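Key result, reporting period 2: structure in, sequence out.
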């Protein structure tokens, strides 16, 4: 198990913005493949490195602990590393490929793309060839967790097929639309944050389970 263990017909699942032991318990119970921890202070889902470390210690082996950062300094990365056993980084700002590689320090990393009308996904994937995963999100104010979908038609089908093993789809997903998203783009993984919340930053175990169930139904429909 793990976020980027690509297997056609088995969409991996990441729940992002977890902040409490109960959040971790709900994610583990629902059998997700990865959790996301937000190290971006302006976010309502932000968490301190030492608190993140305590949450990661609750995870069973095989579930990725992904650190979301936005234009981090080397010092910020080091503070997180010293306190939390992150297994993968998610760069969500304006980091260059070189910065991502250097800051990741040998760990696999994801690079977020914020998809708008003028976004060229082919150029993006060529630029970030060293990224373990390409994280496709909506172009919204702020960085992630906006609960907004982007126009999936902006992703060419040929590109989606060629890059499926490293595509993580995000942006406004929920239990009601994730089936269509999977049928359209066949990503390696899907990522959700606000779609499993009852208020900003407050996760609901029932919504987490519903989302996971919807992904599994979509997988069975997609390959039946």
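The corresponding designed sequence is given below.
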């Amino acid at each position: 198990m793990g976020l980027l263990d690509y297997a056609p017909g088995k969409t991996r699942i990441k729940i992002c913005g977890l902040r409490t032991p109960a959040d971790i318990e709900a994610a583990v119970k629902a059998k997700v493949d990865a959790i996301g921890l937000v190290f971006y202070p302006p976010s309502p889902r932000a968490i301190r490195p030492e608190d993140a470390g305590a949450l990661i210690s609750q995870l069973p082996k095989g579930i990725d602990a992904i650190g979301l950062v936005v234009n981090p300094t080397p010092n910020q990365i080091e503070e997180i590393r010293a306190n939390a056993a992150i297994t993968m980084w998610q760069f969500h700002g304006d980091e260059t490929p070189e910065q991502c590689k250097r800051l990741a320090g040998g760990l696999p990393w994801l690079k977020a793309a914020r998809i708008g009308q003028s976004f060229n996904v082919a150029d993006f994937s060529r630029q970030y060839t060293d990224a373990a995963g390409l994280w496709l999100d909506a172009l919204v104010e702020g960085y992630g967790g906006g609960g907004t979908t982007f126009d999936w038609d902006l992703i060419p089908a040929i590109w989606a097929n060629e890059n499926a093993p490293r595509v993580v789809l995000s942006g406004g997903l929920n239990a009601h639309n994730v089936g269509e998203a999977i049928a359209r783009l066949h990503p390696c993984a899907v990522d959700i944050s606000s779609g499993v919340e009852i208020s900003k930053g407050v996760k609901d175990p029932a919504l987490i389970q519903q989302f996971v169930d919807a992904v599994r139904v979509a997988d069975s429909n997609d390959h039946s």
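The helical segments are 21-29, 49-56, 74-83, 97-104, 121-127, 157-163, 178-185, 205-222. Confidence is low (pLDDT under 50) at residues 141-146. This case is discussed further under Risks and Mitigation.
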